[in-house]
Amino acid sequence: MISAMDIPPQLAPNRSGEAAKRVLVAEDEDQIRHLIVLHLRRENFVVDEAADGEEARQLLLANKYNLAILDWMLPSLSGFELTRWANRSGNFRHMPILFVTAKTEPESIALGLDAGADDYLPKPFDTLVLMARVKALLRRQEWLSKATEAGVPTDPNLSVGPLTLNSETYAVTLAGSPLELTRSEFRLLESLIMNQGKVCSRESLIEQIQGEGVNVVGRTVDTHVFGLRKKLAEFADVIETIRGVGYRVRYLPSK
């Protein structure tokens, strides 16, 4: 079910005078979807609803959203497939995706984040936690947008030794050869390189990957680092483990 628009395309301002944020909620369980929509609208978000993945995909193609909240197990097109589609298309790179799902196994969490989700909230959930996650993702996205508008960083390319990342195109090269990274691996490596020479705690890296820390995915950071090191091959030792704290990218002059 796709709901009628509450507010026309020119989004009405919220109480602070800013344009209201627009959120897509895709959830096939009516009771849960209505609960999420109710709390979002109470916070003055403009909300569109979809009861299956294909309806959500059509809404994404037709409108611009500040955030998408997806259930994993949607009919017709799963939230996982929808996220992979959005990630591959390149048109939704600046739209955070929050998974709300009963699939809480560490393997599922890692798979969802690698597909392109920015955060993960297990069912059943507390609505206060849901809204905190929503606001955290939107704050992070707003900060990134303002940094881009202000020209920070002015050069989208980040480099360390023979490794180069482009924060706009998500392209990664190692000694001139393209390197295929998942979205989460890219964000992790990007954060480490931006803090080159400094130690990044696991907690801070979780925030970079997801937008909000989740206790159950602490080990997922280690899994991503392991995957990154495998892909970096002979250059793997550029990522140093700081026991009991986190990780650091060694300072190296760019080549």
Describe what you observe in this structure:
It is a single chain. With 255 residues, the protein is α/β, with parallel strands linked by helices. The protein is built from 8 helices and 12 strands. The strands form 3 sheets. Strands 2-1-3-4-5 form a 5-stranded parallel beta sheet, sandwiched between helices. Helix 6 (183-194) crosses helix 7 (202-210) and helix 6 crosses helix 8 (218-232). The relative contact order is 0.10. Residues 1-13 and 211-217 have low confidence and may be disordered.
The number of distinct helices, counting runs of at least 4 residues, comes to 8
Number of domains: 2
* SSE-based structural type: alpha/beta
Q: On the 0-100 scale, what is the average pLDDT?
A: 80
State the shape.
elongated
**Poorly predicted ranges (pLDDT <50, ≥5 residues)?**
1-13, 211-217
- What share of residues is helical? 40-55%
Tell me the β content: 15-25%
Total strands: the figure is: 12
Spatial extent as radius of gyration: 19 Å
The CATH class of the largest domain, by name, is Alpha Beta
Q: Kindly report the CATH topology of the largest domain.
A: Rossmann fold
Separation of termini? 53 Å
Give the full name of the CATH homologous superfamily of the largest domain.
Answer: Response regulator
Order of helices and strands: EHEHEHEHEHEEEEHEHHEE
**CATH architecture field of the largest domain:** 3-Layer(aba) Sandwich
Query: In this structure, how is the largest beta sheet organized?
Result: 5 strands, parallel
Strand order of the largest sheet: 2-1-3-4-5
